[in-house]
Amino acid sequence: MAHRDLYTSMDYYRALAEKSRSLTEIKDARPVNVGAAGGFPFYYKDKSNWFTELAWTYLNYRPTPSSTVAGEYILGAELAGTKYLAYLRDVQFLLSSKDEEALEQGQIDNQEAGQMLVSDYERAFGEITDEEMQTANARTKIGYILDYQIPIWADKPHFKFQTGNVDDLEAALPNRPSESDGILVALCEYINALEKYLPIINMQGAARGRRDQAIKNTHDPSKENGGLKTVAPDGKTTKYRVAYQPSRDPKAIRADLEKAARSSVAINIKARHYKEGEASLEIDGRAGGIIGWAGLLAFGTSTASYSVDKFAASQVSIDIDITMRGLSWVQAAPALLSEDGKTGWFDPGILKEAVKNDGQDITGYHLFHYPADEVAEFWMQQGLVLGCLPSIKVTYYAGRWNQAGEELRQSADLGVTLFGIPLAIARNRYKKANFERSADGKSFTLTVEPPVGSEVPNLTDHRAHVLGVQVHQPFKPEESPKVPDSRRPDATVELTTDLRGEPDALTPV
Q1: With contact defined as beta carbons under 8 Å apart, do 477 and 356 qualify?
Q2: What span, in angstroms and rounded, lies between the C-alpha atoms of 40 and 388?
Q3: Residue 132 CB-density burial (10 A; 0-12 exposed, 13-18 middle, 19+ buried)
Q4: Most C-beta atoms within 10 A of its C-beta, which of 87, 274, 326, 509?
Q5: Segments of the chain with pLDDT less than 50
Q6: 168 vs 175, 184, 185, 449, CA distance in Å?
Q7: Helices of type H across 136-197
Q8: What is the pLDDT of residue 484?
Q9: Residue 409 β-bridge partners
Q10: CB 468 within 8 A of CB 32
Q11: Contact 238/230 with Cβ under 8 angstroms?
């Protein structure tokens, strides 16, 4: 689509979202252009109860704000989990100048014990290389041992150092190799000497360990860390992905879609000839923009594809009535990283803190390369409003359909594209176009009805039309209450907390 067509199509998506808001549990649906992603494949589990790769990808699509119209979104192109991982890898846990100075002073005061620890470690395991320190994100060799190696030996990403004796360390480090026995005395002496600095060391180690665990679980999802097993369209190839859990079962979604009498959305579009190949639109009585006929509505047969203007004379004027009978909805939550870091992957608190700390000399998470504003403005899906594939009736203000219309009328297998969105694919296609001439002979209609769902649905083909998307900004910090001006007698405190910055409240996997 051209830029202008995209702008005009958003008028249609806005009408869809507005009409759907009172008809499902999602009351804040935003207009969305799903583009080539098409409808949502709502049969997201196969017979083995594995999640389909198609549905997982759809739920993981990142909604990006439209560059032309505020409050409207485009779905697809980038996966939210991929960008989240890039942001996580950019995060570092840094100490404030005050804490850094205190810790460095403690290490200087205990320099001899530190040198003994490093010496004993390198005697047992070899010299600590620059590459190893870079991998561990460590600034010093002491940091490499304390923040990186010891948590591995403890089998705890949030290992906390405590003063004690060698026996205590042996019990606390069950995964240490036998070569480490020779460094336990030096380690014990160093920890005991730094007793008053242990809170800083433990805080730093726990924070870095949690970030590292979030990175690991996101990059390498598995059965052990709560990853979601997905199956490819071939029905055989499986892979573990970061977990999302839809709030509703496919059968419940289908049951909603089949209740056509309970809820429906209807939209009328008046398209009038503007110039060669283009039409001006009016959507539900509101003036729209200019769009190419091919970007408005197209029908495909086994041999050709036709834009909606090709079935009558030039300078055609038409009315399009679009009806979606039966609405449903689904929400999905990413699996939150557990307290011990062993399962889940999503921890919005890490990035939210990094955004909040931007530019401040404060102990905590900080972004290194990515701008804080970009991370704060990151959007994710929370839910989708779904509808049956639409019935479409086109009224032509012309005497009779032409040869192209006759070919369409004879075809029993149709593809339909509306505002660039494929409505039917593969075996789930519109079956017949019905042409009828008016009694006065001055107009005719073209009507297509959506395919009827089969008793044994195909996981790839059966999709629901997306009417709107529910979105939030998980990494945006809450705004602080405004401080009243004490000089004004009527000063009040205005709470401006942005709830979209909160992690979603759905049940995690």
Answers
A1: yes
A2: 11
A3: middle
A4: 326
A5: 1-3, 454-457, 486-509
A6: 14, 10, 11, 74
A7: 141-143, 150-154, 166-172, 184-193
A8: 53
A9: none
A10: yes
A11: yes
